[in-house]
Specification:
Layout: H1 15-26, H2 54-60, H3 63-71, H4 77-90, H5 108-121, H6 123-126, H7 132-142, H8 144-147, H9 156-168, H10 175-188, H11 206-211, H12 213-222, H13 227-244, H14 269-277, H15 284-299, E1 363-366, E2 371-376, E3 379-383, H16 396-400, E4 404-406, H17 420-423, E5 429-433, E6 436-438, E7 445-449, E8 452-460, E9 463-472, E10 475-484, E11 488-493, E12 497-498, E13 505-509, E14 513-518, E15 521-527, E16 533-537, E17 550-559, E18 562-571
Antiparallel strand pairs: 1-2, 2-3, 3-4, 5-6, 5-11, 7-8, 8-9, 9-10, 10-18, 11-17, 12-17, 13-14, 14-15, 15-18, 16-17
Helix pairs in contact: 3-5, 5-9, 9-10, 9-12, 12-13, 12-14, 14-15
Length: about 575
């Protein structure tokens, strides 16, 4: 059983309606706070960080919604009381619910940032009600972020924002830590508004989640002290928006790509924060349209449990796709998208019409994001070269190394390499050899241009592949040059299409193609090589992020020792 909400675009268009919608999402949490208010217990699953931190994280993350709610004039005495008491208790070493001291790379640094957000934007609820001793306790506890190392990635912004809040509240702060963090972030900047998430890090949702968006936070409060730097952050946001709009589909969702997918509608937070900063990254009606469609789509998905609490997962509850840093309260990072609630009552946003996406190019090369974006049939698809290095995060292959990523279909997560059904290799070329299945991980080399993608890779020693991905009006053509020292089988797979058995769907297998069609979508894999055979793979349930049951059309090739070329057309854009 799960809690089903029904939201419409009107629920996010007018301010009073949007405030009510936020409170509807937060109301179920009230009964799960500790007596002091400093901890929120939402589940029993664990994380790589300390179990003691899990309820602290859950306490902090609803502030991403409550802070703009309060800043925009919203009132809720229960939540104001909880957070007034909770901030005092959690930062008091003598209180049983004390959050404890930190250590290098502590998860609590992520949560310290949202407390800083509250001190900056809603001091009347977060900071001013505290007694002088409580302010001193909270300041001392926030200083933990200055005593320890933060990860060399988007986390640098957490220390900057914390010291900014201390500075603006007249408390001791570390200007040195701010400057060193800003210098480090500057070294991550690429071009066109995009940052790498650390040296060698990815260009993924951590750009709109943090890297670009926190620059806008900074510009709101430091414009007078540092006009040049703040102007640079605002200009980068404008450049970034020109690319980022291509990640969104006409129906509301954006491309499922990269890590931290359980943060869901935080994908639209950048546009919300740009409004707060007063930076016109796109015409106001367009920004409003993106926000209300995105929130409406997401909040009508079955993403809540039977108490109405946000679950770990993507378009439905799914622990399998979780990362080691996802705790029961982690999904409430999504509330970043509600930053627009801080806009004053007379802001033109509230009376603007929600415009559809403007006419976007059907194929757009984003050189600074290392992607080719395609739009058609209500979907947004990214063709990517993949990564040239691995990282320590869960499911990195599935998040970054597939050939294509979609807003409509999302990607699938492997259960194991033992069988194709467990591997669920949508948008990949999977080799069956030595009793297991192998796919592309880190590429040996990559190249991307407006004409297509080229990557060289090896799924396992003894097999070498060079893949060319050529976009076309129907989807894309894959050309693989395979050199193998062993006879084996290769399966070239399309998207995973929803196949709920309570609804009508069809799967076709022919000599040279396979296709899957349902109310949830369509994909066809067609052989352009003589020895290809069409097959439909039914992967294990709950492997896909969007749909619990799916089917994947694929072309199966017999690979012989030596070198051969495989050509597969993947079609997902039917004639519109």
């Amino acid at each position: 059983m799960w809690k089903q909400y029904h939201f419409t675009e009107q629920d996010f268009s007018a301010k009073a309606c949007a405030q009510t919608s936020l409170l509807k999402l937060l109301e179920p949490l009230k009964s799960f706070y500790s007596e002091s208010g400093a901890r929120l217990s939402l589940g029993v699953t664990s994380t790589l960080y300390e179990n003691d931190t899990i309820p602290m994280e859950a306490f902090a993350r609803p502030l991403w919604g409550l802070v703009p709610f309060w800043a925009g004039g919203g009132k809720n005495e229960v939540f104001e009381s909880i957070y007034r008491r909770g901030l005092a208790a959690g930062s008091n070493p003598k209180n049983p619910d004390y959050w404890h001291e930190c250590h290098d790379y502590d998860q609590k640094f992520c949560e310290i940032a949202v407390i800083a957000y509250g001190m900056l934007f809603a001091p009347e609820q977060v900071w001013n009600p505290l007694s002088e001793q409580e302010k001193a306790n909270l300041t001392e506890w926030l200083w933990e972020i200055n005593r320890h190392e933060c990860c060399a990635c988007n986390w640098q912004w957490f220390a900057i924002l914390t010291n900014l809040a201390l500075y603006k509240c007249g408390q001791p702060y570390s200007k040195e830590r701010m400057e060193s963090g800003l210098a480090m972030l500057e070294s991550y900047y690429a071009e066109g508004g995009w940052y790498n998430d650390g040296n060698g890090g990815e260009k993924d949702y951590y750009n709109p989640f943090v890297m670009v968006s926190y620059g806008l936070f900074y510009s709101i409060f430091m414009g007078k002290e540092e006009p040049e730097r703040c102007a640079r952050f605002c200009q980068r946001a404008k450049e970034f928006a020109k690319d980022y709009i291509y990640w969104f589909s006409v129906e509301g969702p954006s491309i499922a790509y990269g890590r931290s997918m359980t943060y869901r509608f935080a994908q639209a937070a950048f546009f919300s924060i740009s409004l707060l900063a007063g930076v016109e990254v796109l015409p106001l009606p367009v920004v409003k349209g993106i926000l209300v469609r995105h929130l409406t789509w997401w909040l009508n998905q079955p993403i809540f449990d039977n108490a109405g609490v946000l679950t770990i997962g993507y378009a439905y509850p799914n622990l399998q796709m979780s990362e080691s840093y996802n705790g029961p309260g982690s999904p409430y990072w999504a509330l970043k998208a509600f930053a627009f609630l801080a806009l004053p009552d007379d802001h033109p946003f509230w009376n603007a019409e929600a415009a559809p996406l403007p006419q976007l190019e059907k194929q757009k090369f984003l050189p600074n994001a290392d992607m080719i974006l395609q739009h058609g049939n209500g979907d947004a698809v990214a063709l990517v070269p993949g990564r040239t290095q691995t990282d320590g995060h869960s499911h990195s292959i599935e998040k970054y190394s597939k050939f294509a990523y979609s807003a409509k279909y999302a990607f699938s997560i492997a259960r194991s390499q033992m069988t194709l059904a467990e591997l669920a290799p949508d948008s990949m070329l999977a080799f069956q050899v030595y009793g297991c299945c192998f796919v592309k991980n880190a590429a040996e080399s990559t190249k991307i241009s407006a004409d297509g993608v080229v990557c060289s890779w090896s799924p396992i020693e003894g097999i070498q592949v060079t893949t060319h991905i050529v976009p076309n009006a129907r989807g894309h053509l894959r050309i693989h040059e395979v050199t193998s020292n062993v006879d084996c089988t290769a399966c070239d797979c399309g998207f995973a299409i929803p196949t709920d058995d309570r609804c009508e769907f069809s799967c076709k297998e022919q000599a040279a193609f396979a296709e899957v069609r349902s109310a949830g979508g369509y994909c066809k894999a067609e052989a352009g090589s003589a020895n290809g055979c069409g097959k439909v793979l039914v992967p294990d349930p709950n492997t896909n992020l969007n749909a619990p049951k799916t089917a994947i059309p694929m072309v199966v090739y017999q690979i012989h020792k030596g070198t051969q070329e495989l050509r597969t057309q993947i079609t997902y854009f039917e004639q519109e």
